[in-house]
User: Which sequence fits this backbone?
């Protein structure tokens, strides 16, 4: 049996992959300065988000590309999961009209994912305890939100049934 040796593609080198992610994160989260705010910036992610549904899908897809680049660079699975959680938060809250647009100005998921990527590329043997804690915190928050929404819907249904009946 002949075994072919697989060489990594040039685009999969850590420095090139990180440079791509840095450029995308800057473009999406920090490329446009806001005059008179002492250096505050926002990116095209906030502008794209103004287009209902399509804008959120486009910016979410680009955010997933950043996560995919991190997986190709060999980041630990828990870091990838944390990056996915950041992207999910950005997508879910960003899809809410007006509130989501304001949220996009504050919660810069791509910049957060870039920071996670940098930390683990610079120190590959570093502990992932912080990522595990963040992931468990996200899961706990998600469970609380789902339970509260369920409780609210039950109470609303009971109130409507009581008013009608």
Assistant:
């Amino acid at each position: 049996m002949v075994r072919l040796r697989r060489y990594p593609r040039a685009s999969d080198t850590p420095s090139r992959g990180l440079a791509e992610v840095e450029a995308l994160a800057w473009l999406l989260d920090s490329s446009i300065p806001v005059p008179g705010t002492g250096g505050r910036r926002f990116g095209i992610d906030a502008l794209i988000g103004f287009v209902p549904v399509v804008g959120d899908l486009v910016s979410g897809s680009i955010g997933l590309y950043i996560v995919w680049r991190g997986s190709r660079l060999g980041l630990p699975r828990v870091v990838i999961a944390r990056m996915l959680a950041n992207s999910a938060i950005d997508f879910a809250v960003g899809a809410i009209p007006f509130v989501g647009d304001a949220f996009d100005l504050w919660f810069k998921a791509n910049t957060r994912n870039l920071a996670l990527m940098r930390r683990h590329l610079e120190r590959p043997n570093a502990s992932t305890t912080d990522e595990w804690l963040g992931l468990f915190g996200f899961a706990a928050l998600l469970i609380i939100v789902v339970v509260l929404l369920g409780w609210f819907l039950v109470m609303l249904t009971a109130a409507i049934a009581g008013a009608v009946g």
Observations:
- The mean pLDDT is 85.
